[in-house]
Amino acid sequence: MPEKRRMPRRRRREGDTGRPVVGGTDMEEHDRLLVIAEAADRLGVSPLTIYKWISARRIGCVRLGRAVRIPESEIARLIEAGRRPARPVWPRVRRVKKDVP
Questions:
Q1: Which residues lie below 8 Å from residue 23, measured CB to CB, with a gap of 6+?
Q2: CA–CA separation, 71 vs 36, rounded Å?
Q3: Most exposed among 49, 64, 80, 88, judged by the fewest C-beta atoms under 10 Å?
Q4: Could you give the number of structural domains in the chain?
Q5: Structural domain that includes position 55
Q6: Sign for the pseudo-dihedral over CA of 10, 11, 13, 16
């Protein structure tokens, strides 16, 4: 009987925590996973938009078999990335029209 080959263990890289990595950052330890419809509802977009963002890697996801889930931290990251500061309000100066002779 041939000897059974064992798969080599994956070596840990420096700084590897062993936790799943989503969107380039470690997933929070107790991060809730949302279904596509919940994520779309929170962001105010359609589920199709969420699928497009996943395929474009704009938003990270977790695949559990065929199921796709979005971590809450990814929703928060996407919102924070889109946040723009308000412009300061300057007093308006009215221009006086000159009479052209």
A1: 59, 60, 74, 77
A2: 10
A3: 88
A4: 1
A5: 22-81
A6: positive
pTM for this entry:
0.57
Two tokens at 74? 């990814």
R_g (Cα) of the chain, nearest Å = 25
41-88 pLDDT tens trace: 999 999 999 999 999 999 999 998 999 999 999 999 999 998 888 887
For 20-37, what is the mean pLDDT? 70
Q: Residue holding tokens 């199921």? A: 67
Say if 72 falls within a structural domain: yes
Report the distance separating Cα 38 and Cα 36, nearest Å: 6
